[in-house]
Amino acid sequence: MALDPVQLVTFQAVINEGSFEAAARSLHVTPSAVSQRIKALEQAVGQVLVRRGKPCEPTEAGTALVRLAGQTALLEREALDAARGPVAGGHTRTRVAVVVNADSLATWFLPALAGLTAEGGLAFDIHQDDQDHTADILRAGTAMAAVTAQQVPVQGCRVERLGAMRYLAMAAPALRRAHFAGTDVVAGFATAPMIVLNRKDRLQHRFLGTLTKRTLDPPIHYVPAAAAFVEAVRLGLGWGLVPERIAVEDIAAGRCVDLTPGRHLDVPLYWQYWRLESTVLTTLTTAVRAGAATALR
Question: In this protein, which residues make up the domain named HTH lysR-type (predicted)?
């Protein structure tokens, strides 16, 4: 059975835009037309493909079709660009959806993309999630590549190791004096407030477990942005694990101190991307690989 390409494009638009109405606007058709196309596609497949909510999300059956729609659109765009050539009006921009963890996004990932945007031809749609969860967006089909802590490849994807991001346990000098004046480091971590990015972020808990061999329950401040997270540490709201390349500058300047000299947390990161023979993915992967080589251990 051949899938209707118009229905497939419409299905992708509903998932990417989050609603039938937004998909209709992006496709320049009526919401009724979008609804009819989705209904026809679901009848052809014999499965419900969209969870009608806010936003609309693919069902388990629809996830594979989201990925298929994105891959088809990417290969079609590259084929058209190759056929038309530069004299036929230039290349239209290819939208590239990637998902990245907050600390990579705040440090090395954007510089890796800068050369690609300067060359033109690509428009990035960057999603952010915890490194232990970025592969979920890739698995859902709404991103074509991910920086992730997951080594096992998502179905239909390639995976390669980028390196490890090193974190140091950093705090403002005043916080160290208040909670770590004695020799009992465990007691200090048990009472000192801790900065956590969000409720998915388990880095600090993982570090404490490795360091103390105990389950501690310190006070927690949730600060859901990488730059604000570091600023909260600098201001003494609590301690937190900060990427080494940021931490060493603050420590050298005296703004912060390393709470556990000689102890750190290394988080291996991987690049997962669709298993396609695609010029865009090859170019993107080369840039990400080069950026990671200069920033990760």
Answer: 3-59
